[in-house]
Structures are given as C-alpha cells and as structure tokens.
Design a protein that fits this description.
Shape: globular
Strand content: 15-25%
Structural class: alpha/beta
Oligomer: single chain
Number of domains: 2
CATH architecture of the largest domain: 3-Layer(aba) Sandwich
Helix content: 25-40%
Bound molecules: NADP nicotinamide-adenine-dinucleotide phosphate
CATH class of the largest domain: Alpha Beta
Strand order of the largest sheet: 14-17-18-13-12-20-21
Number of helices: 14
Radius of gyration: 23 Å
CATH topology of the largest domain: Aldehyde Dehydrogenase, Chain A, domain 1
C-alpha cells in the first residue's frame, strides 16, 4: 500500500478547475434552477475534488427543449460534416489524454495507466463512427413484382437520453454519443453522480470540435430519477440508451413503455472464464488476470467465476495466485500501482460482504481477502478456492478484484456451469483445440466470447449482451443501427 496524499497538487487543481458546477443546455453552461450543488470525492483520499450542479425537473425539460430544437440542425448536417466533428473529437481527446486520465483517476480511483487506456478506447469510438457516418447506406431496387421501385432510407431517430454508469466515466458516454452524432441525433446525457467530471469535460471538447449548440446537453444532479423521469414521459424524446445495473434497467424499461421509446440496455454481467486442460497455461493466466483486474474488477465484463478443468487446476491456481498477490495497491496517481481504490464505501462493503459470505460457507483465501489501509476504499487483489455452490458471489456481480476459482471435470459440466446464470454479457474460454473453441463459444449463452483473450472490447465490434444483461449493441457496424429509423418509400416503375 502506498502513502495517500492528503491534499491536491497544483496540476490536479488546474485540471479540476476547468470543470464547471453547471449544466450544458442548448450550447450554454448554466446554473441549475434549484438550490445547491453535489460534492464529488476522490475515493482514494476521501477529499472533495469538485462539485456538480443539482439539476431539476425544469432543467431536464429545458434540456429536452434544446435537444428538440437542435434536432433539425443535426439532421441537416451533411454526413461529411458529422464525420469531421467526430474526427476532431477523437483528435482532441487524444491530445488531452494526460488531463483526462488524471481527471478520471481522481474521480474513479483507477491507476493512471488504465485511465489513459480508457481515453484511447473512448477516442476510438469517435474515430470509428467518423467512418460510419459517411457509410450509412439505404437501398434502391425494383420491387419483387416488377411494377414498382423501392427506396429504403435511414433517418435519425431523434432526441436521445443517455444514462451512464460510474465505472467507465468516458467510454460509456462515448459509445453512445459517437454513433448518435454519426446518425444525426441530438442527445441529453445524465452521467453517474459518483464520476460525472470526465463527461462534463468531454462535453466541452465536443463543443470545441464544432458540435452545434444543443447537439449534446448534460444534466447532472443528486437524484437521477428527478431529471430522467420527466424526459421518459415526454413524447419528444425518441430513444433511451442506458448502461448500468440490471435492476435500474428493468425499472427504466417499464418507465419507457408508455411512450413506446426505442430502448437499448447495457446491463450487468456474471462472466464465466473457462480454462480447459489443453489451454496454454501462460496465456490462460494472463487472460484471466486481465479479464478479472481490468478497471480493478469494476467492469461488467469482469470475470466473475473462474472455472478450471481438473487436469490444469493446480498449475493454473498456483500461477494465477502468484500474479494476483504481486499487484500493488494504492492511489491511482502513484507510480507502479496496479490496483486503485474502489469507487466508494458501499462498493467496498459489498465486496467484503461477498468474500466473507463465501469464506463462511467454506471457501479458502489463497491471497488477499481483506481491505487495505485506513484512508480510502481499498481492497486487496483476492483469489478464493474451494468456493461452494451456495456462495453468493457465484450469482451476484462482485464488481471488485476478487476471483473465485471452481474446478470442473468434463466439457459439458464446464459449459453447463458457465451458463447457469441469469446474465449473458460475456464469457471467456481458453483452449488450444480449435474445434473445441468454436463448439464451446457457440454453446455459451452470452452476447460476446473471448477465445484465448481476456479483453475484447473494441470500437469496431458489436458490444452487448443477452438474457438479463440487456439488448442492443454498441460499436461495430451495428452500433449506428440503434440511432436510425428505416423508412420505406414505394413508387411506380414509370
Ligand atoms: P446504476 O446504479 O444502475 O446506475 C447507472 C446510472 O443510472 C447512473 O447514472 C445512475 O445515476 C442512474 N440511475 C440510478 N437509478 C436511476 C433511476 N431510478 N432512474 C434513472 N436513472 C437512474 O449502475 P452503476 O452502479 O452506476 O454501474 C454499475 C452497473 O453497470 C453494473 O451492474 C455493471 O455491470 C453495469 N455496466 C454494464 C455495462 C455494459 O455495457 N453492459 C457497462 C458498464 C457497467 P446516479 O449515479 O445519479 O445514481
């Protein structure tokens, strides 16, 4: 554990000083109509690092007024103009990597190297959709009976509401904003109150990149429901895209139903990671480490259950524990830190509770298994073995640096255990047998599979889940489909 800093450096103050405790509505930064602001804290030190505006229902309506007014402007931009804005945004994000990474580390706690990685990942969505903006094609053909001409046109769906989680403060917004802008949609973004600062900076950079006023509007505040409910009930809103917990996603789907809103849901996960006897041991250990520890385990894609075939179980466990035990825990801004603070006390308590539950039921702690230090919300990189069937962490998202290992015998057993969850976001599998790789990847009930890879998120591929992990896809050629309506126009041949 490294020593925590108890005050902000000049550099940190300068970066934080750029972020206004205001809302962006119709191209103007303005105070919320209500009283007060909400504090944002550094989870590594407990220090207040900023304040955000506490948006109200009136502010939400004003944001939708602005998004609705700007919709024709956005729709009338040429594909090339939209592409140029996206390209410029990608470039600005890249140029501001150090500043954005520091901001993200201060509000989320993860190590700077990981925050830099998220800036690159977020920027890549603007780069990717800069290309897609000019390739959004329709169709023109002779009708099947030969008597008519069929024209299929793609039009922007209209004003969108984006609700994003705290765990990837830049990328989760970027995955929605980039395709929406490419398609010609305006939007209102509601970032999580624990990590809203990076999104506010992204909005400034979108303005700098030339996005028309009202093209993006940002609402922050203490009560998510206060600013989102009036929007979901308003017929001018045409689309909701949510990333967050399954529980909140279910509520939002219900709220969106009366308005028959188009909805995309990127929800929770309970990823299995299967290591077969024939896996390359080093590849499997490194893949499992990445799948577990990216973002400190605070990721929907995090390996939640590590399922190892008996023949390789001892060798895998020994090497994996060695890798996990070597992780340096500390403030994300400190040199050499591999695991930063968890986002808040609730998150830390939940992780500790899940580990304690498993241990009380018979699991063994191979490394970690405890909180670290007195200041901030730190938990050690942890491996549990002999995890019993009824341990809660096999069913619940851990969202922390805790890896439960389970042993299985046959391929069928491994696949059955992997699929024994209500979630279906991602699964990982490690094998050197190509046929088994394809067979098992097809049998896994998830929207995504990492085959001999522990990290697969990429702006050029469709990210998303099935079952209780949601529906809709972000990234890839599919990503823009979430933001267009298809219109069929029929006309006579002559
Ligand atoms: P969360 O509690 O569901 O919150 C997500 C967002 O929804 C936040 O902006 C939150 O605002 C807002 N919210 C909460 N209650 C709401 C309500 N009643 N009405 C409208 N908005 C509401 O999730 P989280 O704890 O931030 O994020 C962790 C979860 O996200 C995990 O389950 C993780 O698996 C999932 N996730 C999924 C993906 C994916 O792509 N599938 C990616 C990342 C994360 P406040 O912050 O202001 O409360």
């Amino acid at each position: 554990m490294t020593t925590s800093t108890t005050s902000l450096t000049d550099r940190e103050r300068a970066v934080l000083g750029k972020i206004p405790a205001q809302l962006l509505i119709g191209g103007t930064w303005r105070d919320a109509t209500g009283e007060g602001t909400v504090a944002v804290e550094d989870p590594a030190t407990g220090l207040e690092i900023g304040r955000i505006a506490d948006g109200t229902e009136d502010d939400a309506r004003a944001a939708l007024d602005a998004a609705t007014a700007a919709q024709p402007v956005m729709a009338s931009l040429s594909p090339r103009e939209r592409s140029d804005i996206l390209q410029k945004t990608s470039q600005l994000l890249t140029e501001h990597t150090e500043e954005l990474a520091l901001l993200m580390t201060l509000e989320l706690g993860k190590p700077l190297a990981e925050s830099r990685g998220e800036v690159a990942y977020g920027a890549s969505f603007f780069w990717w959709f800069a290309g897609e903006a000019v390739r959004l094609a329709g169709e023109y053909k002779t009708s099947a009976d030969g008597k008519g001409r069929t024209l299929v046109q793609r039009q922007p769906v209209g004003p969108c509401l984006f609700i994003t989680p705290w765990n990837f403060p830049l990328a989760m917004g970027a995955r929605k904003l980039a395709p929406a802008i490419a398609a010609g949609c305006t939007s209102i973004v509601k970032p999580a109150k624990l990590t809203p600062l990076t999104m506010l900076r992204l909005a400034q950079l979108l303005e700098e990149a030339g996005l028309p006023a009202g093209g993006v509007n940002v609402l922050t505040g203490n009560s998510a429901r206060a600013v989102t409910e009036p929007l979901l009930n308003d017929p001018r809103l045409r689309k909701l895209s949510f990333t967050g917990s399954t529980e909140v996603g279910q509520k939002l789907v219900e709220q969106a139903a009366p308005n028959l809103l188009r909805v995309s849901m990127e929800l929770g996960g309970n990823a299995p990671l299967i290591v077969f006897d024939d896996a390359d041991l080093d590849v499997a250990v490194e893949g499992a480490f990445m799948a577990k520890m990216r973002n400190g385990g605070e990721a929907c894609t995090a390996a939640n259950r590590i399922l190892v075939q008996r023949g390789i179980a001892d060798a895998f466990t020994e090497k994996f524990v060695e890798r996990m035990a070597a992780v340096k825990v500390g403030r994300g801004t400190d040199e050499g830190v591999g695991l930063g603070a968890m986002v808040d006390q609730d998150q830390l308590d939940k992780i500790a509770e899940l580990v304690d539950d498993a241990v009380a039921k018979g699991a063994k702690v191979a490394c970690g298994g405890e909180t670290v230090g007195d200041v901030g919300h730190f938990y050690a990189a942890t491996v549990l073995t002999d995890v019993p069937d009824d341990a809660r962490l096999l069913e619940e998202e851990i969202f922390g640096p805790v890896a439960p290992i389970r042993v299985f015998d046959t391929e069928e057993q491994g696949v059955a255990e992997a699929n024994a969850t209500e979630y279906g976001l991602i699964a990982y599998l490690f094998t050197r047998d190509l046929a088994r790789g394809h067979r098992v990847a097809s049998a896994l009930e998830t929207g995504m599979v990492g085959l001999n890879r522990g990290v697969i998120s990429s702006s050029d591929a469709p990210f998303g889940g099935i079952k209780h992990s949601g529906f809709g896809r972000e990234g890839g050629a599919e990503g823009i489909e979430e933001y267009v309506d298809t219109k069929y126009i029929s006309m006579p041949l002559d």
